[in-house]
Amino acid sequence: MKSRTKARCVALQVLYECDMTGHSPQEVLEERLLEDPMENVLADFSRQIIQGVLPITNKLDAFIAEHAPEWPMDQVAIIDRNILRIALWEFAVENCTPIKVAINEAIELAKMFGSDSTPRFVNGVLGSLANRQQEILQKLHSTLRGTT
Questions:
Q1: With bands split at pLDDT 50, 70 and 90, how would you rate the model's confidence at 138?
Q2: Domains of the chain, start order
Q3: FRET pair for 80, CA 20 to 30 Å: which of 65, 68, 124, 138?
């Protein structure tokens, strides 16, 4: 497994557990890193994803919901929601990963953790979101700065 993929896997597991249990993200991450240590730069990437996604989960979900109208967010599997959140955060908020790479990584996570239909669902939603990257980037950054 590629190193950044491993970091995404850890972030996904932490986000999933936090959604399911309400546990502290920091504590869950530290437990994961004790179980499966990784280089500091990769642990930092996992931490960045978690700290980037959690505060804006509702905003990310709103964009995702627009592109998956047949699937209300409360009916989308928790693992699928978090895969989508991570990818959207990477290419539209943090702008740290090229769109195609973020989508491919999300599809790989979907294959590892989701159901048989998850990779196709993730690809479709993210493909639709990718076409609106600049609009999403502007909206998210303006709401994060407190303007509309």
A1: confident
A2: 3-144 (1.10.940.10)
A3: 138
